[in-house]
Specification:
- This protein is mostly helical and 100 residues long.
- It has helices at 21-27, 47-54, 68-87, 92-99; strands at residues 15-16, 19-20.
- The chain has a two-stranded antiparallel ribbon with strand order 1-2.
- A hairpin with a 2-residue loop joins strand 1 and strand 2 (19-20).
- Helix 1 runs parallel beside helix 3.
- It starts with 14 loop residues before the first strand and ends with a helix.
Length: 100
């Protein structure tokens, strides 16, 4: 059996002036906002989270190229976009709200 190649994930922002494609997609109700959160780095994890990886061959090899303030601002925009989509019953929020 051939070995699986290492999977590498890249999280990126496509920026158009002051908005991002990520924010636009959340605002339109295409995805829940939580899908835009990046994984935690090893140092950001709580000790119990690190323990989940210690007994496996998996190690968190995450490099972050954006500072914490910019990332926090990005997440704030995402949260507001999700509130907008929920309030306006857009995309994935249309059916779930109508069922309640």
């Amino acid at each position: 059996m051939a070995e699986e190649p290492e999977t590498k994930m890249v999280y990126c922002w496509i920026v158009d002036q002051g908005d991002t494609l990520n924010n636009y997609l959340i605002r339109k109700g295409c995805f829940p906002g939580g899908t835009m959160e990046r994984p935690k780095t090893w140092n950001e994890m709580e000790s119990w989270e690190r323990e989940l990886y210690e007994e496996t061959d998996e190690k968190m090899d995450l490099t972050v190229f954006v500072d914490s303030i910019a990332y926090s601002d990005f997440l704030s925009q995402i949260r507001l976009a999700e509130v907008y989509a929920v309030e306006h019953k857009l995309g994935i929020w249309k059916e779930s709200i109508e069922e309640e």
